[in-house]
Amino acid sequence: MNIGEIARRAGVSRSTVSYALSGKRPVSDDTRRKIQQVIDELGYRPNASARALANGRTNTIGLVFPPAGNHYTGMQLDFIGSVVEAAAAYDYDVLLSPSGVDSDRSFQRLLGERRVDGAILMEIRLEDDRVDHLAELGFPSVAIGRTAHPEGGWWVGLDHTALAAACVHHLADLGHRRIAFVNRPEQLLRAGYESAHRGLDGFTKAAAERGLTVRTYCCGDDAASGQACLERILHDDPATTGLVTLNEAALGGLYRGLAQAGRHVPRDFSVTGVVAGRWAETVTPQLTAADVPAEEMGRHAVDLLVERLDHPDGPSRHHLLAPPISLRASTGPATAS
Amino acid sequence: MNIGEIARRAGVSRSTVSYALSGKRPVSDDTRRKIQQVIDELGYRPNASARALANGRTNTIGLVFPPAGNHYTGMQLDFIGSVVEAAAAYDYDVLLSPSGVDSDRSFQRLLGERRVDGAILMEIRLEDDRVDHLAELGFPSVAIGRTAHPEGGWWVGLDHTALAAACVHHLADLGHRRIAFVNRPEQLLRAGYESAHRGLDGFTKAAAERGLTVRTYCCGDDAASGQACLERILHDDPATTGLVTLNEAALGGLYRGLAQAGRHVPRDFSVTGVVAGRWAETVTPQLTAADVPAEEMGRHAVDLLVERLDHPDGPSRHHLLAPPISLRASTGPATAS
DNA sequence: CGCTTCACGCGAACCGGTTCGACAACCGGA
DNA sequence: TCCGGTTGTCGAACCGGTTCGCGTGAAGCG
Question: For chain A, what is the domain count?
């Protein structure tokens, strides 16, 4: 069942059916009604591939996300969900593309074979060849994250530097003098992940400003690693009274480590960081944290991409977000020890 | 840059280029080399829409997942990740389709417009019109979950009945006599979600078998609801000493409620349920639970779908999984009270 | 009444691939 | 030398839409 069949049954030509559907040329009410009736009767829908071939747009956007090998964090899930939902509102479908080790292959599929009109990139690195590559090609894309040279690019990012610094100031204001930083896994830091780098920067600078004694750690994205990391922290400096973390997935393990060391949160030890709000609330006591507005970021990314697709020659745009710290129950004044 | 351009530069016809690429007819080594050289030079890749139009296959599978309105659980994330990864291994892309309120619209896009060759459905209901609809159409699809009448269908499911029963027996063996069941939200139960129904069934029957006193609850998919639910449980029957849950997202809240009621896990109260292993380990004490093998299920679903696509006339297949309970630290003998 | 104007619909070309039938060149065997 | 079979290549048709240019009949106008 194709457009020719509809045309035949309605007693008109294929082009007339096409115009009746698209409205790009006037069609008399009579014929339009007749065509619509046949379409409803047969439940006809135009073939997406044929349409994409003819007018050069697939009405699909690609979402390039990290490989499953690493554990997913809740934040990534929220990104995916909100991107899909926002795209649906614009009548775009979302094609998932794992950007694994051989990111070239996946990229070739998306771009070279023209499967998508534009792309949204997650898990950005400070020096990101994917971003550079797309920029060179002039291919419409929006990054969720910000490279070291974001000027002139399209992105929506989180001000990790400021957020980590805010966490440090929060702890310093409470009187903490010896604190630790729990980062994402070392492998990601070495790969240049922007959140890991900027977060670390913000933490280090703010701590220096306040004259704090600090230690920084990398930690795997799971509970067991979090627990192990906390043991190292207390082993390296038992006088530590607080920590800042970017590592959502390790949070449960950090709490467990504290409980087993007999440190009560927040009486003996304060915990804070940058974490999606929904996850900050699952731990007890609930985490005082800068809540990552993942859903808002996903929506923004789609809005920007659609704008870029609709106005290819418009100026580049971006959003830099810096949500405030939500005070919950995991931080408190440093005890005189 | 298209196949005609390649043909021109290589001094051959378009069909020869096509055959050189597909290998469906012999091409002399000389011409093949010449063609390959031009292709490499120009970085040519065949247009996916054109190819899909010509041979009737998109090399894309649709993943129909629940709308973002409800919170996602970690399990769903694991499904998505493993499906994408498994599909990539077969050279399939994955198109995400939110099956929201107007699931018809999204379905029409996927099927009517022929965007995908097959589909994987998540969040199955006992009476699921999507499954029925696809079965009527003979459209290749695989369900992650099992309807009330799974005979002759393609699916990969979890034996929630058996798993919930196993949890009850585990608690009963430890001497618990009064236990509660914490289900998914009431809205989902009413909608007929299979895990909620079968889990409840398994719990109820096993409890009756063991002569236990039980209460069952529905609980929202977030920590606050979990905490509230636990308060209700202890209010309704303070002598309750254990619970079984399917609700991953509420788990943190349940623990918090217990802590605030002064019940120590596992000394005063035992907690168990059916939860993805990775999340069972984030809480303290770690949850004794039947670990949902989400990644394995996603892989199986893709395997089945690809088999169905390759052999449209083969007999239907399915996998019913029933992972054992992993003993961790959240259950213990009932205290004589 | 003859002329322009406009609304409407048609046919053909095109998007970029795949596939089928035909044909030329070459080979060995009778 | 002629014939039959291979091998390699080509042209044309096709997949199912969109879009451009043109023709036609009716309405508008002096």
Answer: 3
Helix (H) or strand (E) holding B183: strand B178-183
**Chain D, protein-covered positions (CB within 7 A):** 7-21
Task: Give me the amino acid identity at B51.
Answer: R
What pLDDT, on the 0 to 100 scale, is given for residue B68? 56
What does the pLDDT look like over A143-168, one tens digit per residue?
999 999 999 999 999 999 999 999 99
B337: pLDDT strictly greater than 70: no
Looking only at the bridges linking them, the beta strands covering A288-291 and A270-275 are parallel
Q: What is the CATH number of the domain that holds B126?
A: 3.40.50.2300
Residue B133 has pLDDT above 70, yes or no: yes
Does A165 share its domain with A286? yes
Q: Looking at the structure, do residues B237 and B134 belong to the same domain, yes or no?
A: no
Q: How far is A179 from A217, CA to CA, in rounded Å?
A: 11
Whose tokens are 């792309």? That residue is: A119
Nucleotide nearest to B16 (CA to C1'): D9
Point out which residues pair with A217 in neighbouring strands: A182
Cα-flanking dihedrals φ and ψ of residue A95, to 5°? -105, 125
- B45 to A113: CB separation less than 8 angstroms, yes or no: yes
Distance A29 CA to C8 C1' (A): 11
How far apart, in Å, are the Cα atoms of B158 and each of B38, B184, B205, B292, B318?
51, 16, 18, 8, 11
B14 touches strand C (CB under 7 A): yes
- Same-domain status, B178 and B269: yes
Question: CA-CA distance, B205 to A213, in Å (whole number)?
Answer: 59
Residue B123 backbone zone (phi > 0: left; psi -120 to 50: alpha; other: beta) = left
- Beta pairing, strands B93-98 & A93-98: antiparallel
> Is pLDDT above 90 for A109?
no
Q: Is the distance between the Cβ of B112 and the closest atom of strand D smaller than 7 Å?
A: no
Beta strand pairing call for A155-158 and A213-218: unpaired
